[in-house]
Amino acid sequence: MEFRLIDRIRERTAQGREDVRLGIGDDAAVVAPPAGQELAIAVDTMVEGVHFPHGTDPADIGWKVLAVNLSDLAAMGASPAWALLALTLPRQPVAQVQQFIDGFADGFTQLAQPHRLALIGGDTTSGPLSVSVAVHGFVPPGQALVRGGARAGDVVLVTGTLGDAAAGLRLLQSGARVTEDARAAYLIERLHRPTPRLQAGLALRGRATACIDVSDGLLADLGHICEASALGAELEASLLPRSPMLLGSFDDVASLNFALAGGDDYELCFTVPPSLVAEVQGDLARLGCGATRIGRMVEGAGVRVRDEQGQWLESNHRGWDHFA
Ligand code: ADP
Ligand code: MG
User: Fold this and answer.
1) For residue 313, what is the DSSP state?
2) Residue 191's domain spans which residues?
3) Residue 324 falls within a domain, yes or no?
4) 94 and 172 share a domain?
5) How far is Cα of residue 317 from the mean position of the Cα atoms in its chain?
6) 17 in the same domain as 114
7) Which sites bind Mg(2+) 4 (predicted)?
8) Model confidence, pTM
9) Which listed ligand is nearest to 119 at the C-alpha?
């Protein structure tokens, strides 16, 4: 049965690429990397009950496990080419397995196709539901965007809006019915179907001094840039880009906490020298995601956030608050 399943995956994800010499079906895939390019490689796993709730639509799982990987390539300024897929599926009747595979493959392909990403192999085992994808992308030598290159005085920017996915998760957990509320539907869609900012990542090559994708929340991920760059960051709470759907669904304190500490947005957070901010913002606006300046890099360590009155926000048991 495994073989018919793999055939099904191959058929539903088919994507012709000349650089794939051997795809699904042999002992290993054989690919021809372009001369003079470096490879950027990443892998991410999603486990049922940990990274997505039981009962999540298989198409959403297929989209998201690819999206989180493509987001890692975006954060490196790499353009995607190939993927591997390791599937662990519970033992269940064939019809159910097929239904899962078909949905999963369709969600995966919806995102893979526009990026011309080819699924070239994988592994299939039985056990608790878990999906892993590894992606390979190209980047010109020495041009990968890294976390450690920020300089004091650089401006911190972020693409898109922050906090939507965490708000969507909160709504799901509180039993919101998507059909009843367009704002809730938007936020839950942002959770299930994040948009990897691949074009933005390419546009940042040679201009951003540091870059990371926001998967664990802005404070945590900008914290990684700070650590790698041996600097601190100062943010203005009032500048954090929040969607009208988020602001319409939660009060100011809750939406600020989602924007600062919520995960799963898969926006890019990056630093650029002040002289490049305007042109980078112009380019990212043309790409549709936009980029908002939210603060700057400073000597020191750690991320600090200032409110509109200039008071530093502090962390407490409810999250980040005007508690100082
Ligand atoms: P082997 O035992 O040689 O690893 P497998 O039976 O695991 O062979 O896989 C057969 C072929 O199918 C290989 O080319 C492998 O890459 C591919 N494959 C297996 N599982 C998947 C999957 N979930 N998605 C994509 N390709 C897969
Ligand atoms: Mg195998």
Assistant:
1) P
2) 155-306
3) no
4) no
5) 27
6) yes
7) 27, 72
8) 0.94
9) 1
Summarised one tens digit per residue, pLDDT across range 168-219 is 999 998 886 666 789 999 999 999 999 999 999 999 999 999 999 999 999 9
Please give the distance, rounded to the nearest whole angstrom, from the Cα atom of residue 51 to the centre of ligand 1. Answer: 24
Beta-carbon contacts of 127 under 8 Å, excluding residues fewer than 6 positions away, are: 88, 89, 90
Q: What is the pLDDT confidence band of residue 11, given thresholds at 50, 70 and 90?
A: confident
Of 299, 283, 318, 322, the closest CA to residue 204 belongs to 283
Q: Which residues line ligand 1 (CB under 6 A)?
A: 6, 9, 24-27, 85, 87, 119, 121-124
Q: Give the chain's domain count.
A: 2
State how far the Cα of 154 lies from the Cα of 275, in Å rounded to an integer.
Answer: 9
Mean pLDDT of the chain: 94
Residue 295: give its domain's CATH number: 3.90.650.10
Q: How far is CA 221 from CA 3, 131, 218, in A?
A: 40, 24, 5
Among 66, 44, 76, CA closest to 270: 76
Nearest CA to ligand 1 atom 22: 122
Binding site listing for substrate:
51, 264, 320
In-domain check, residue 62: yes
Q: Does residue 318 lie in a domain region?
A: no
| Max CA pair span of the chain | 64
